[in-house]
Amino acid sequence: MSLWPRNVPRCQAARQRCSHGPAAHGHNASRTKAIFLLAGLALALAGCGQQQEDAQVQTGHEIFLERCALCHNVNAQGIPGKYPPLIGSDWVNGPPERLAAIILDGVRGPLGNLNGLMPGWRSVLPDTQIAAVMNWLKEGTGKPAVTAVEVNHVRLETGGRNTFWTVGDLRNLRVR
């Protein structure tokens, strides 16, 4: 069984020059160049998307170091007995709406074996920065990236809130 298409003469399969000419083989040089150009462009755009995602994750880490690391530690592992770890927590790995709500308005009260207070960042951080922090925290979890549009949706849906979230509030949170 030959893997070479039936309509292409063997001389082309052997990469020999032949007297048939390119047109006899259905070969069109400009079409081939266009296909390679489009394939290269597609690969470049795919790489560009990955670079943008990587840059957003890096930005998220920088924002985390500036705003959150004092309590949650530079590696987001928390401070034992004082501040909870974030990496691998249900709050980070759960629905993105909950994590966005926590970052926007903070949380107060018992959280696992801790009882504390985390301030909200609604009036400080724009949606793009909140999404970046969330994506840094979720990096490597296989979860889809969070967009600023999704964060903005949570911001608008919870905009009338003027207090911290509690664990019960967060478990009952439903964002349309």
Work out the number of β strands.
2
Give the N-terminus to C-terminus distance in angstroms. Answer: 57 Å
What would you report as the Rg, rounded to the nearest angstrom?
27 Å
The name of the CATH architecture of the domain at 53-171 is Orthogonal Bundle
- Outline type: globular
Secondary-structure-derived class:
mainly alpha
Question: What's the CATH H-level homologous superfamily of the domain at 53-171?
Answer: Cytochrome c-like domain
Instruction: Using the coordinates above, name the CATH class of the domain at 53-171.
Output: Mainly Alpha
Number of helices: 8
How are the strands of the biggest sheet laid out side by side?
A: 1-2
Helix content range: 40-55%
Name the beta content range: 5-15%
The chain-level mean pLDDT equals: 81
Question: What are the low-pLDDT stretches, counting only 5+ consecutive residues below 50?
Answer: 1-5
